[in-house]
Amino acid sequence: MARKRRPTLSDVAAEAGVSKMTASRALRGAGDVSKTNADLVRTAAKRIGYVGNPLAASLSGKRSGLIGVVIPSLTNIVFAEVLSGIAEGIEGSGMQPVFGVTNYDPDKEYEVIRNMLSWNPAGLIVTGLDQPEDTLGLLRNAPVSVVQIMDLDGTPVSACVGMSHHAAGAAMAEALLAAGRTAFGYVGCGLDRDTRARKRFEGFAAALARHGTGFEATRTREGHSTTQAGRELTADLMAAHPGLDCIYYSNDDLAAGGAFHCIAAGLEVPGALLLAGFNGLDFVESLPVRIATSRTPRREIGRAAARIIVDPDRGEDPVAQRIVFSPRIDLGL
Amino acid sequence: MARKRRPTLSDVAAEAGVSKMTASRALRGAGDVSKTNADLVRTAAKRIGYVGNPLAASLSGKRSGLIGVVIPSLTNIVFAEVLSGIAEGIEGSGMQPVFGVTNYDPDKEYEVIRNMLSWNPAGLIVTGLDQPEDTLGLLRNAPVSVVQIMDLDGTPVSACVGMSHHAAGAAMAEALLAAGRTAFGYVGCGLDRDTRARKRFEGFAAALARHGTGFEATRTREGHSTTQAGRELTADLMAAHPGLDCIYYSNDDLAAGGAFHCIAAGLEVPGALLLAGFNGLDFVESLPVRIATSRTPRREIGRAAARIIVDPDRGEDPVAQRIVFSPRIDLGL
DNA sequence: CTGAAAGCGCTAACAC
DNA sequence: GTGTTAGCGCTTTCAG
Fold it and tell me: Does residue B314 approach strand D to less than 7 Å at its CB?
């Protein structure tokens, strides 16, 4: 049962009795086509089951309908949700998202971006602002819309949508101080590679300093943020510094681990010890104890980034867009 | 600063002083090229910074270097990890993964697959075996390698890699019965659309039936599986059936919510009430109480699926591959 | 082993 | 409005 060759634009044109160009124009609503012919073409296309070949269109036109997305990890639900938002934002545009995972490795990131650029994507969505210089060069010279996401603390190549992690850290510190906490500890994972977590830490520390205080102790570890790591580091930290009344974590996963430790150890949360995470993941709400967190609009960030690429609008205005989100603090009290 | 046109194969050929074809062959190691020329070409390519245009290659050759991945959701960490595994499996092959999210909507799935096929991908990785007939037609006639993942209970279009959810459910039931549990409840979300969760439920129920028992009560809800939903449904279920000594959940997220309820309600877990989830997510290990789960090798599944598409090997053997994984039960006792 | 010719399927530029 | 002519950058023939 020889599978028939997939119909091409020529087939549609022949079927409709017009030229390839008219068919092309009619199908993508470009240029002017008489209503009669437009209908003719559309019916013909439907009849023979024509599906355009975006590969050919991309090669011919300047830009492909691909949107490259570069994220550091997919094990982290946060980035999965960003992807999800991007998929939503692209919806109906006929574009396809392609993704690349860097595992927080700058060299891998360079490779991934370079590789993606070879596809002549319509746009590139890249996580973060702190790429090494050669990667930035790649992005600056790329003949595509570049959108950097998740971060605002720095100088974007072009458009960027995200939030200030420094400010987010500071805001959380202010809120915790206002809630009467005085003895702070910190627990974080992968700070060597996660520049945004580092910025939150610094923002938090800076705010404490402004109030004449600081972290009494910190516990950090390389590698992924897991609840298990959070639990262990918290146990360790509290054993050494039982006087702490507040711990700031680099994210909710670690904070949840901290909560689990406290439950197991019979530590009263948040009364005796207040735990603060970051992201506002869903499960935070249903933990048996309340913890503080900053809710980040990651799906919205993805959606907004996708929209910037999908919409050619904004009249080429030379000032690149900068969409600012602010995480919302929830002390859970 | 006029950005120079990106170098093409012709440029490389000219630079190396050979024909386009020799350059092409040398660069992708196809056909025979004299070592001398091969070196000449490679150096020339490096010198002028040549990066191939996969769009053109795809249009010219039969298949593109794109791999389509169709998943129901990205809000669920499980599928994000599958994607992650796919990215690993593709690594170094020069292929690009493109993804589409269906939100468990069969119509959306049809559209996504159809759209992806238009790119002439090298392969398609699709979640599940239970597509509607028209979607199956699309897949069967697709001139690409199709790999269905996550499920084995049914007839695959071609290759498939995953596990039997029916068997997984049954195995968990057997294990719980062996552990002495006698009064079973069930909590699930989104069973109307998640056929695999349904299969686990059925497998579990069938096993109970073989032992002359069954679920005393079930609580289900539409929509996503969230810890919050798990917590609420558990509270509801236990209020109505305080005599239960075991609850089977459609996944770990719900089970965690159940655990949180029990902690808050002072119910002894697992002593008085054993909770069993599915997936073996990382956080299960660090929960303050132990719950049972089935560990699923989702990253491995992704990696294996990618490999099937990346490797042309296995000598065209007409028997499509079928890679079987078995979840490993951990009662957490 | 190497090269010349002929497209892949589509669209940008011009004519008409 | 509509058709024609050229490619996009690569690979597949098929001759040498």
Answer: no
Residues with Cβ < 8 Å from A97, sequence gap 6 or more? A66, A67, A68, A69, A83, A86, A87, A90, A306, B98, B99
Average confidence (pLDDT) over B83-89: 96
Helix/strand/coil for A174: helix
CA distances from residue B223 to A14, A222, B193, B194, B248 in whole angstroms, order as listed? 48, 36, 9, 10, 18
Per-position DSSP letters for A3-47, written without gaps between them: PPPPP-HHHHHHHHTS-HHHHHHHHHT-S---HHHHHHHHHHHHH
Domain range annotation of chain B: 9-52, 66-163+298-326, 165-295
CATH number of A66-163+298-326: 3.40.50.2300
A62-92: burial string, b at 16+ Cβ within 10 Å, e else = eebbbbbbbbbbbbbbbbbbbbbbbbbbbee
pLDDT value at A312 more than 70: no
Q: Angle A289-A295-A296 (CA atoms, 0-180°, nearest 5)? A: 145
Strands A328-330 and A293-295 come out as antiparallel
Residues A186, A215 contacting (CB under 8 angstroms): yes
Least CB–CB distance from B52: residue in A77, A97, A118: A118
Ranges assigned E (strand) in A204-321: 215-221, 246-249, 274-276, 293-295
Q: pLDDT tens-digit profile of B177-187?
A: 999 999 999 99
Average confidence (pLDDT) over A97-110: 95
Taking the complete model, does pTM exceed 0.85, yes or no? yes
Share of chain A above pLDDT 70, in %: 96
Q: What is the mean pLDDT of residues B123-135?
A: 97
CB within 8 Å of chain A, chain B residues 238-277:
253, 256-257, 260, 263-264
The reply to whether domains B66-163+298-326 and B165-295 share a CATH topology is: yes
Under CATH, which architecture does the A165-295 domain have? 3-Layer(aba) Sandwich (3.40)
- Separation of A22 CA and C14 C1' (Å): 15
Spatial neighbors of A114 by CB under 8 A, at least 6 apart, are A138, B51
Mutation site for A-interface testing, chosen from B5, B64, B96 by largest number of A Cβ within 10 Å: B96
Banded pLDDT at A63 (limits 50, 70, 90):
confident
Residue B169 has pLDDT above 90, yes or no: yes
- Helix B20-28, helix B9-16: angle, nearest 10: 100
Q: Are A235 and A228 in contact (CB under 8 A)?
A: no
In sequence order, the 6+-apart residues with CB closer than 8 A to the CB of B17 are: B40
Find the mean pLDDT for residues B106-127: 95
Mean pLDDT, rounded, for B215-239:
97
Taking residues A293-297, report their average pLDDT: 97
